[in-house]
Amino acid sequence: MDLSSINPVLLLASLMVAATPILLAAIGELVVERAGVLNLGVEGMMITGAVCGFVVAVGTNSPWLGFLGAAIGGALLSVIFGFLTQLLLSNQVATGLALTLFGLGLSALMGQGYIGIKAPEFPDWHIPLLGDIPVIGPIVFQHDPMVYVGLVIVAGVWAFLKYSRAGLILRAVGENHEAAHALGYHVVRVRMLAIMFGGACAGLGGAYLSLVRVPQWTEGMTAGAGWIALAIVVFASWRPGRLLLGAYLFGGVTVLQLNLQAAGAAIGVEYLSMAPYLATIAVLVIMRAGRAPGSLGQSFHASR
273 and 68 in contact (C-beta within 8 Å)? Predict the structure, then answer.
């Protein structure tokens, strides 16, 4: 095994790229769960966003319109989940699992005519001056725009939940929806908006895979990323800062195992491919998660 072939700067730069789709999906799910809703359909929304974004980007030759289409596709799929769980009061766990299966099937159908087609180029940003800083520049300031969009969304969610009145209402709904309703807040409306935001973020995460990381359409290309995003939300104790750390940890292990494979590590490829998921499980076991929102997974009955 030749470890000298692994470039530490390139490894750390690749970490940010590998973490971005997980980060986008996880920050959306964090908002959903802070509103008291458990949506296990993240994987389905991600794969739907991946195919919607790819189809729109190829049709318009614009990656930006592709990301917009992915966000809309993910949000529309999440509306189905919201309608079933918030208005028809179906079981959130069962509905989320069904949403994942539906999304996987729908994406396979939509993507049949796009296999083997290359997505339009989405160039990196070389931020002037900052991108020229030795070591730090290539790691932090020479990425594609969606890497920074993801960081901005995380910072925005943190500020929204901590400082805004709307964020306080959302947290109140998640902690005790009955008390929030008694104070005059529209619980279903708040939850539906949170669900749509989560769907849009998951769609963006999926589109990042099909438009930037690969970039082409492959059936089932999310490969469990939505489930990892769900696990990272728990690991983060529903805090945006810790969620960022968790996404980068997963991204780092993913990139490291790819580099070890390229360096000819005397470890089976199958075992190296398992490493990111094993690391996530290990972290969940070792780290004690904080208290979940009080009303997480509970349906709200307006008639009460």
Answer: no
DSSP 297: T
Domains in the chain, CATH or no CATH each? 3-114+145-286 (1.10.3470)
- List pLDDT tens digits, range 97-151: 999 999 999 999 999 999 989 999 998 887 877 788 888 888 888 899 999 999 9
What value does the CA radius of gyration of the chain take, rounded to a whole number of Å?
A: 19
pLDDT tens by residue, 33-75:
999 999 999 999 999 999 999 999 999 999 999 999 999 999 9
Give the separation between CA 269 and CA 153, rounded to whole angstroms: 35
Q: Specify the DSSP class assigned to residue 28.
A: H
Six token digits for residue 183: 């104070």
CA distance 96 to 221: 19
Q: Kindly give, in sequence order, each residue whose CB lies less than 8 Å from that of residue 266, ignoring residues fewer than 6 positions away.
A: 1
Are 304 and 45 in contact, with CB atoms under 8 Å apart?
no
Find all residues with CB under 8 Å of 181, minimum gap 6, and list them.
187, 300, 302, 304
Closest CA to 227 of 266, 281, 264, 295: 281
